[in-house]
Specification:
Blueprint lengths: L4 E8 L4 E3 L11 H12 L3 E5 H7 L14 E5 L19 E6 L11 E5 L8 H10 L4 E6 L1 H9 L5 E6 L8 E2 L17 E6 L2 E7 L15
């Protein structure tokens, strides 16, 4: 087993939605839930988001709600779609990485490290991404979003823990949280050990996924 620690994080409503149908999500979770997220960021070497989240939310990915050092900010962007003005690329001293498919024409701002990786059908494998980060000294990693990105890492067996923060909100319709491959029967569902914590009026489900976590192999820095 490798020595990486990979945590996924999702904030959602009682009915399992992370946004409305239009994509609006600010803010389903309240101040305490957001502070918990910032605390998670302060404990890791790198925080990872997909390009869809970077474009839709334009997050800063800092630890401004707590005391700590800003982690490296990593965007998974196979086709290098993210514009150079994204807040995630702001030069505040934290390392910034753009993970793309090999051959993509990436033009991020100066100081942003481009990490080209092999793609399969336009997608980058979660294990390959984590191995590339580990090769650069980033061994504690937070997969922050969006839901599709967290779901892909979960389905690939690449999470040690999942922090699911449920707010006392019912959206009724909207974009779902975790989405995994289809199963036929309920007894085929992934059942994991977990504990819960009250965070003001929200509930944190801390899910232990170590039993299904796959070992992440190393990759060369030259990739």
């Amino acid at each position: 087993m490798d020595d990486l620690v990979i945590v996924g994080q999702i904030g959602q409503s009682l009915d399992g939605r992370i946004a409305t149908e239009s994509g609006h999500s600010k803010y389903i979770n309240g101040p305490a839930g957001l502070t918990h997220l910032h605390r998670l960021r302060s404990l890791v070497d790198a925080v990872v988001i997909g390009v869809g989240t970077a474009i839709a939310d334009d997050p800063q990915l800092t630890v401004r709600r707590v005391t700590g050092i800003h982690p490296a900010r990593v965007v998974i962007d196979p086709k290098a779609r993210l514009g150079s003005g994204a807040k995630v690329f702001c030069d505040d001293g934290a390392p910034r990485l753009l993970i793309t498919a090999a051959g993509a024409l990436a033009g991020p701002p100066r100081g942003v490290q481009v990490v080209p990786l092999p793609a399969v059908e336009g997608r980058l494998a979660p294990a390959t991404i984590l191995a590339a980060l580990a090769a650069r000294g980033m061994r504690r990693v937070l997969i922050e979003g969006g839901a599709e990105t967290v779901s892909r890492f979960l389905a690939a067996g690449c999470l040690d823990r999942l922090h699911l923060i449920v707010a006392p909100v019912i959206l009724g319709t909207g974009r779902p949280g975790i989405t995994l491959p289809l199963i036929d029967r309920a007894d085929q569902a992934l059942r994991v050990p977990m504990c819960t914590h009250q965070i003001d009026d929200e509930i944190l489900f801390d899910c232990d996924l170590t039993a299904q976590r796959l070992s992440i192999g190393a990759v060369s820095r030259s990739t």
